[in-house]
Amino acid sequence: MSKIIYDFLSKNKRLDAILFGTSRIGICGLLAINRLGLKVPDDLAIISYDDYEVFQLHSPLVSAIAQPIEGIADHVITLLLNRLNGKLKADEKQTITISTVLNIRDSSTKKL
């Protein structure tokens, strides 16, 4: 995965910022950025989904969108139990909105 990101960043040198869709891709992105010798956030600002603990150990600290994993799990379990108990039909659609938190850290802010 980091090779794909490496190739993409090599071909798109004019990017200001990148949002990684998962923590795994974010880690691969950090590896590619380091291999390219780019400085975060001066050369490229980054944000990742899933506020993985490693992002708080990286220098600079990585901005991340934290998802409420326990809340998501609770909703999934409730939906499954409702379907198993016949309270919800298999073809009945459900929409659940769960708030996330954007943790802004040094990887997405340039010092002036």
How would you characterize the overall build of this protein?
By secondary structure, the protein is an alpha/beta fold. The chain has a domain at 2-67 and 100-108: Rossmann fold (3-Layer(aba) Sandwich). It is built from 3 helices and 4 strands. Strands 1-2-3-4 form a 4-stranded mixed sheet. Strand 1, helix 2 (23-36) and strand 2 (45-49) form a beta-alpha-beta unit. The two termini are 33 Å apart.
SSE layout:
Blueprint lengths: L1 H10 L5 E4 L2 H14 L8 E5 L13 E4 L2 H16 L16 E3 L9
Parallel strand pairs: 1-2, 2-3
Antiparallel strand pairs: 3-4
CATH superfamily of the domain at 2-67 and 100-108: Response regulator
How many DSSP H or I helices? 3
Strand content: 5-15%
Q: Assign the CATH class of the domain at 2-67 and 100-108.
A: Alpha Beta
Shape: elongated
Strands side by side in the biggest sheet: 1-2-3-4
Order of H and E elements:
HEHEEHE
Question: Could you give the count of β-strands?
Answer: 4
Amino- and carboxy-terminal Cα gap: 33 Å
Please estimate the helix content: 25-40%
Largest sheet at a glance? 4 strands, mixed
Overall mean pLDDT = 91
**Rg from Cα:** 18 Å
Q: From the helix content, strand content and strand pairing, which structural class follows?
A: alpha/beta
Low-confidence stretches: none
Write the CATH architecture name of the domain at 2-67 and 100-108.
3-Layer(aba) Sandwich
CATH topology heading of the domain at 2-67 and 100-108: Rossmann fold
